[in-house]
Amino acid sequence: MGGAQVAGPSGQMTWIRGGPTSLDSQNITDAIDDSLRRLGVDYIDLYQIHWPDRYVPMFGETEYDPSSQYTSVPMEEQLEALGRAIDAGKIRYIGLSNETPYGLMKFLQLSKDFQLHSKLLTVQNSYNLLCRNFDSGLAECCHHERISLLAYSPMAMGILSGKYHSSDDCGPPEARMNLFKGRYSEGESRYKLQSPEVKLAVKEYTQIAAKYGISPATLAIAFVLRHPLVASAVFGATKLWQLYEVLQAARIHLPEEILVEINDVHARYPNPCP
C-alpha cells in the first residue's frame, strides 16, 4: 500500500511547491499530480493532509489561542479537491495528519455531506512514550469512527533510544537533531533535549528496557504497536541494526508488569514532548 501527503501552509519550506501558502484546490491538485509523477504510479492508495490549513496548537504548543486564528481555506474546498481526485482514480482513500478531535470530526461530517466515494481512514499524529496526547481526545473519536492512527515519531526523533542522554547529553554528531540543528524549529520546539523532564523520563524508560533485556528503541516502538487503534508506526532507520530493533519490536509482547512500570513513569512525567 502506497501513501503520500500534501503539505499545508509552509512558507519556510520552499522546496515544497515553492513554499505553499494554503491548502486550496489548486495546491492539492498540483501536489497529487506531482506525487504521481515522482512515484511513477497511476494512483495513490492513501493520501493525507499533512497538517491543517487553520490555526491549531501543535509541534510543542499545548493551549489553544483563539486570537491566533487566521483566514484559512475552507475544509469544503479541500474535500472537493480530494473528491475529484478520488473520482478521477488518482487516489483511493484519504487521511489527515497533525489533527485535533474537532478537525477529525468536522472532516468526517463534511465527507458524509459530500458523499465521498472513499472513506476517511487514518489520522497520522505523533505518538510515543513522551507524547501520549492522542489518548486524551482523538482516541475516542478514532474508536467510534473506526479511524486508524498512523503513529509518527514513535521514538521521539530518536530521543527514546537514549543516545542523546547516554553520556554528555549531546549524542553522536551524526544523530539527526545534531546534524540538522537549527533547521527544524518545529521538531526542536517539541523535543527539548535539555528539558529536565525529558532527561528523567528517558533515563527511566531506558532502565525499564535494560531490566527486561530489550533495547530502549525496541521498547519504545513495541509500546506504540500494542495500542489497539494503531495501524502502523512511521519510523526512520539509517542503519541496518536500527531496522533490526524495529523488527524486534513487532515480534515481542510487552507483559503487564512492563506496562505498569511504563505508566508509573508517565504519571510522573506526563507528555514532556507534546
> What's the total count of β strands?
6
Overall average residue pLDDT: 88
What fraction of residues sit in β-strands? 5-15%
- Which shape, going by the Cα principal axes? globular
CATH topology value of the domain at 1-124: TIM Barrel
Structural class: alpha/beta
Low-confidence spans: none
How is the largest sheet built, in terms of strand order?
Answer: 1-2-3-4-5-6
Series of H and E elements: EHEHEHEHEHHHHEHH
Q: CATH superfamily of the domain at 1-124, called what?
A: NADP-dependent oxidoreductase domain
- Structure annotation, total helices: 10
The CATH class of the domain at 1-124 turns out to be Alpha Beta
N→C terminal distance = 29 Å
Based on the structure given, which CATH architecture of the domain at 1-124 is correct? Alpha-Beta Barrel
Major sheet details: 6 strands, parallel
